[in-house]
Amino acid sequence: LSEGLYLFYLDGALSSELWKTFEQTTADLIAYPGAQAWWATRKHWHTARFRALVDRIIAERRKPTLYERYADRAYERKT
User: Are 41 and 75 in contact (CB under 8 A)?
Assistant: First the structure.
C-alpha cells in the first residue's frame, strides 16, 4: 500500500499532506527490528525508488514508539 501511494505522490496524484501521513506510518512500522529484518529479505519485491525511501528511513535509526502509548495506558490501568 505505501509503495503505491508513494508512486502516486511522486507522480503528483497524491497530495504532500496525505503522503506525509503514510510516510509516518511506514517510518513507525519499519523502526522495529523485526520489520527491518523482514525488509532486508523482501525489499527486492519493491521498486528502486521505494527501496531507497525505506532504506533512508531505516538509516535515520528512529526509536520504535508505535506502541509506546498503549503500553503506558495498560500500565496505568494496573496501578
Answer: no
Rounded Cα distance between 10 and 28, Å, is 21
Q: Which of 35, 36, 29 is nearest to 67 (CA)?
A: 29
Count the domains in the chain.
1
- Which residues of the chain fall below pLDDT 50? none
Q: What is the dihedral of CA 16, 63, 49, 38, to 10 degrees?
A: -130
Q: What is the pLDDT of residue 65?
A: 75
Nearest to 29 by CA among 58, 69, 9, 59: 58
Q: Are 15 and 62 in contact (CB under 8 A)?
A: no
Structure confidence at residue 76 (pLDDT): 60
All cell numbers assigned to 75: 500500565
The parent domain of residue 40 ranges over 2-78
